[in-house]
Specification:
The chain has 11 helices and 13 strands. The chain is of the alpha/beta class.
Length: 319
């Protein structure tokens, strides 16, 4: 689903009209949190979530945190619900066996870095990871999940889009009221330049600045022409990243978030690219959803989260 434009407008009659439903949505979230049954575990549980719906940079942040603890020699596992994956139950992702439509694209991508468990019930995923020897379990999403205890809660937000009109769904992009969410959070990671006008932050909340940085692969993006496509929450961010490395984009095709990349879509894109004598390129997350026939035909540009000050991340978990 593409986010409505009025979610990011200061004044909108649509948002005003939907406010009663927004208040109800927030109240239900509050009550679920207040009366939740929080299962506690012996392993360190770190939740990487957001207040917004849609993409804010949770997955690359989760990967960066996993690398942070892996470098310390700790056994790190990730737990995800496997959005749009058809498999049920609780299981360990095998990147050489599973496909994105079975486990979800994000778990498949993250499984290249460390062990990833998929479970529709996150608490079962944490239990499985702990039983398998995990010392640190990182939750990719789940900030509003009241079924498990969180040792650390990290909220991720895009520096440009921020919290939009600061209203809850369906009047705005929020899953819950900002001040309500901040009370439970230990840190706020802002991804990208801070163009959004944020309100004052509570004193207890650690603010960590970061940016998405393209991975050096030896590819000279300044040569040739490219047709870019992306099925992520904010495709424009990917297109801007390609331009930042010098790629000459003859066209940019924005698909729906997590859209299934069937042969009909890909054949159409391939024909368009051939006509323009351009190379197809997509995101790392979209690449894991490509059918085998297109794996060698499409390039991807991987990106990683880079923290402006790594000491802030170190201090967050040492305090």
């Amino acid at each position: 689903m593409k986010a409505p434009q009025f979610w990011y407008e200061t004044i909108s009659w649509k948002a005003t009209f939907l406010l009663p439903l927004a208040y109800l949505y927030n109240m239900l979230t509050y009550l679920r949190e207040k009366f939740g049954n929080y299962q506690k575990y012996d392993c360190l549980t770190i939740c990487v979530g957001n207040l917004n719906v849609g993409g804010t940079g949770k997955t690359p942040t989760t990967i960066a945190l996993a690398d942070h603890f892996l470098e310390k020699g700790l056994k790190v596992h990730i737990v995800s619900r496997g959005y749009k994956g058809k498999f049920q139950g609780t299981f360990l992702v095998n990147p050489r066996k599973h496909k994105s439509d079975e486990v979800g694209d994000e778990p498949l991508l993250m499984s290249e870095f460390t062990s990833v468990w998929v479970s529709k019930k996150r608490k079962n995923g944490i239990a499985a990871a702990e039983k398998a020897g995990a010392q640190v379990v990182i939750l990719d999403d789940g900030f509003q999940d009241s079924s498990f205890h969180k040792d650390f809660s990290i909220v991720v937000v895009d520096g440009k889009r921020g919290f939009g009109n600061k209203k809850c769904m369906p009047a705005g992009p929020l899953r819950e009221n900002i001040s309500q969410g901040f009370k439970r959070a230990d840190a706020l990671i802002i991804v990208g330049h801070r163009l959004y006008k944020f309100d004052a932050f509570p004193e207890h909340l650690k603010i960590i600045s970061s940016k998405l940085k393209p991975v050096e692969t030896g590819m000279n993006w300044k040569e040739g022409k490219y047709l870019a496509f992306a099925g992520i929450a904010d495709p424009e961010k990917f297109f801007a990243t390609l331009r930042s490395v010098g790629a000459n984009l003859i066209d940019c095709v924005a698909l729906s978030d997590h859209q299934r990349l069937n042969e009909q879509i890909l054949n159409r894109l391939e024909r368009k690219a051939k006509t323009a004598q351009a190379q197809l390129v997509t995101t790392e997350k979209d690449a894991v959803r490509l059918p085998n026939a297109f794996r060698k035909k499409v390039l991807s540009l991987p990106v990683r989260i880079e923290f402006d000050n790594k000491d802030e991340l170190e201090n967050l978990f040492n305090n």
